[in-house]
Design goal:
This protein has about 290 residues and is of the alpha/beta class. It has 3 domains: about 5-75, Winged helix-like DNA-binding domain superfamily/Winged helix DNA-binding domain (Arc Repressor Mutant, subunit A), CATH 1.10.10; about 90-160 and about 265-290, Periplasmic binding protein-like II (D-Maltodextrin-Binding Protein, domain 2, 3-Layer(aba) Sandwich); about 165-265, Periplasmic binding protein-like II (D-Maltodextrin-Binding Protein, domain 2). It is about 40% helix and about 25% strand. It contains 9 helices and 13 strands. The chain has helices at about 5-15, 20-25, 30-45, 60-90, 100-115, 130-135, 200-210, 225-235, 280-290; strands at about 50, 55-60, 90-95, 120-125, 140-145, 155-165, 165-170, 180, 190-195, 220, 240, 250-255, 265-270. Helix 7 (about 200-210) links the parallel strand 9 (about 190-195) and strand 10. The protein is globular and about 75 Å long. The chain starts with a helix and ends with a helix. InterPro entries: HTH-type_LysR_regulators, LysR_HTH_N, LysR_subst-bd, WH-like_DNA-bd_sf, WH_DNA-bd_sf. Belongs to the LysR transcriptional regulatory family. Pfam families: HTH_1, LysR_substrate. This is LysR family transcriptional regulator.
Length: about 290
Amino acid sequence: MNIKELQYFQRLFQENSFTKTANFFHVSQPTITAAVQRLEKELDAQLVIRDQSHKDLIFTDSGKQFEKHVEQILQEIETAKLEITAIKKEKVRLGLPPIIGGYYFPTLSSQLVSQDLLSQLDTHEDGSKLLLNKLITGHLDIALLGSVQPIENDQLSGHMLSRKKFKIIVSRNHPLAQKKAVAFKDLQREPFIQLNERFIHSIAFEQLSRQNRIKPEIIYRTNDIQVIKGMVANNIGISFLTEMAILPQDPVAALELSDVVQPEFMIQLVYRSNHVLTAVQQKIVNLMTQYAF
């Protein structure tokens, strides 16, 4: 059993055709057939049945089960390649959402510099949802992620660093601007300007909407927090943001949510469970877990 045979089998499962699989790999059809036969011999089980009358392929229960393992094996091999390439480059690929990065990284970077670690970082900015997927697939080594609940995944290890509140921001000329707090259900007729669905905010917003049985109108989505603040300042709409993203100098008014039950913005440091941290990666993990988030 070798990697190429596994790749042939996975593609055959996807295409359900020997001809298409052979064309994809630019090999002859007998090459694919022989590879499958070798796998069947090694596993002592029939994986594929060829229905000659209908020219169809039928994967046996053994074949379907084997494909699930093949998918995991090939993914692990790809992840290993990415990890080893990163180690050779002596760079730590750090996932950093813009909100968390903007709030913490300027002060955190001074500590990284003092330990000669900043130059070792290769930062990747994106929403927490996409960064989590990149971490699982081996495209990142470590990630600082935002979530609305503790990240529980058998493939990951993590450290809870901080919990922050979500708030509502409105124009200083908005009728709500004089209030200190507001119930989410009282905002059902307000137009919202929100971060797009790559960010955890969308999950928290939907959670509150379901909880209050309302469906506020979202008139605009963007991945740019400054655009959101500018539109809110001009009274085009209101927004729902983590308190981390709201600065004292912002030209908006920030209100607490008075809901008894409400989501939190959790900050977690996460890496793959089966990933052996290098000395540099371990130093960065140690620094971040000791940092006062």
